[in-house]
Input
Amino acid sequence: MKDLSLHILDIVQNSIRAGAKLIGIEINEHPEDNQLVITITDDGTGMSQEQLKLAIDPFYTSRTTRKVGLGLSLFKQNAEMAGGSFILESEQGRGTKVIATFGLRHLDRPIMGDLVGTLLLLITDAQSESDYVFKHQTQTGTFELDTRQIRQTLENVPINHPEVRSFLKEMIQENLEQIQISE
Amino acid sequence: MNKIKTLADLKKLQSEVQSKIKLREKGDIPESLVQIKVSMATCGIASGAKETMNYFIEELDHQGIDALVTQTGCMGYCYAEPTIELTLPGKEPIVYGFVNKTKALEIIEKHIKLNELVDGIIPVNYSSIDN
Output
C-alpha cells in the first residue's frame, strides 16, 4: 500500500465483509509522543480465537477466491517498520478492533495520502448498509463525521447523489484542513 | 477564508436536490442502470482500484450516464487488478482486467455507449458441453 488512507480503505473492507452495521474510523495525532494512532472498530461477526491468531498470517484468509490474505499483515508490517505497534482484538458476535500505531515523524511512516477520497468512497457507496463514524484528532482540533446524522439530514435524497457527493467532498476537505492534519 | 460547510448547509442542499430528484426515479431499480462493480480488496486497492472507481463515478456523472458504481470483493483475478464487472441492462456481466483510467475511458466510450466489446475481457469459466 502506498499510503495510510489506502490501508484504512482496505481494513474497512474486512468490516464490511463481516456484515458490520457501524464502523468506526479514528485517527489520533499525538505530536508530543511522536505517535499517530489509527483505530478501526466494527460490530461485525468478529473472529474466533483460532481465527484471531491466524488473521495476521499472510497465508491465511477466509476467502475462497484466493489463498493469501495480505491486508492485515501489510498494515502490521508498515506500523512496525515505522516504530509503532499493531493490536488486533476480536470477539465472536461482538466485532473487531484494529489499533495501529505509527511513529508520527518516523522516516518510514507512509504518508496519509488521499484521506478525503477514501472516506468519500466508503460513505457514498450506494449499496453499503454500513454507517460510519469518523473522527480525526490533532493538536489543533477534532473533526467528527457520523453518516447516521448525514442520512437523517438527507432524508430520502440518496447519499450517492452527485451534488451531495461533491458537497461532502468539500465539507470533509475543509474540515481536515481546518484541524491541520499531518501529511 | 470561507465558512466551513456544516450539516445545516447540507440541509439546504437537501431541499434543493429533493425537488430535482423525482426526475431520476428510475435510479431506484438497479437492473435498469449500467452497473459497475469495482473489485476493492487488498489486491485491487494496491493496484489503484480507488482511482479507477473515482474515475468511473466522476466521468459517468460528467457525461450524464445513469450508472451504479459499487465496490465488491476480490474476484480471484489478483494478477489482473484493478478488475471491474460491467453489467449493461438486460445483458450478461462482463469482467475486465487491468482497468486504469485510459482503459476506463475506453470502456465508457465503446462498451457502455456503443455496446462494442473492448480488449481486456477476462473470460468466465465455460461450463462443459455436458452441462
Observations:
- The radius of gyration of chain A is 16 Å.
- The interface with chain B takes residues 1-2, 6, 9-10, 13, 17, 63, 65-66, 69-71, 74, 114, 117-118, 121, 125-128, 149-150, 153-158, 161-165, 167-168, 170-171, 174-175, 178 of chain A (CB under 8 Å).
- Chain A has a mean pLDDT of 93.
- Residues 12 and 97 of chain A are 11 Å apart (CA to CA).
